[in-house]
Amino acid sequence: MKRTLAFLLLLVLAVGLVACADETAPDGMINASTDSAKFNLYVPEGWFSQAEDGISGALAPLGDANVIVTAHLLEEDYGTPEVFWQKRCEPEYAAYLPEFTLVEAECGEAIMGGINAQKYVFTMKKGNATYKYQQLIILDYNMAYVLQYTAELSVYGNYADDVASIVSNFALR
């Protein structure tokens, strides 16, 4: 009886450990997503997670760039990330972001955490500074997930390797 009970306890612990294995950050990275998020946003160690502030995102080591993931409950079926961008994102950005400019040569199909995504790159001005954005969009059932990297144009390329790692290690829960 004691052996059976001990075996069952070990089995429950083993199942619990396997279930938690997906939550383990890849080597050299930390999880910057909130506990309630339906995804894991892994960023390189040295980036500053904003999860404690209720934001699934992180600031770059020098504070001159950031990455954030937003989740959108879809009330209509957009079908593809391209249609979501065309109907929801692009019109709002064009209306509200000063000097919004799509950098078409850098847009196109992408992979985000092993999932087919669509990438959009654009710039906008704020005061005297020009900011560059990279957004990757995936649709999953009735949700859209948008991973956005933002930096001033002058430092945008400084984090290219970090952003590529962030994008490739993104995972839905």
Structure, explained:
With 173 residues, the protein is of the alpha+beta class. Helix content is 26%, strand content 38%. Strands 4, 5, 6, 7, 8, 9, 10 and 11 form an eight-stranded antiparallel beta sheet that branches. A hairpin with a 2-residue loop joins strand 9 (115-126) and strand 10 (129-140). The longest helix has 19 residues, at 2-20. The protein is globular and about 40 Å long. The two termini are 37 Å apart. Mean pLDDT is 88; it is low at 4-22.
Keyphrases for this structure?
alpha+beta; 173 residues; 38% strand; 26% helix; globular; eight-stranded antiparallel sheet; two-stranded antiparallel sheet
What's the short story on this structure?
By secondary structure, this protein is of the alpha+beta class.
**Percentage of residues assigned to helices:** 25-40%
Q: What kind of sheet is the major sheet?
A: 8 strands, antiparallel
Over the alpha carbons, how many angstroms does the gyration radius reach? Answer: 19 Å
Number of strands: 12
What's the N-to-C terminus distance?
A: 37 Å
Tally of individual helices: 3
Estimated structural class: alpha+beta
- Helices and strands, in order, run as HEEEEEEHEEEEEHE
Low-confidence stretches: 4-22
Q: Characterize the overall form.
A: globular
What value does the average pLDDT take?
A: 88
Taken as a percent bin, the fraction of beta residues is: 35-45%
What topology emerges from the helices and strands here?
Blueprint: H1 2-20, E1 29-31, E2 39-40, E3 42-44, E4 48-49, E5 57-59, E6 65-73, H2 81-96, E7 101-102, E8 108-112, E9 115-126, E10 129-140, E11 143-152, H3 160-169, E12 171-172
Antiparallel strand pairs: 1-3, 2-12, 4-5, 5-6, 6-11, 7-9, 8-9, 9-10, 10-11
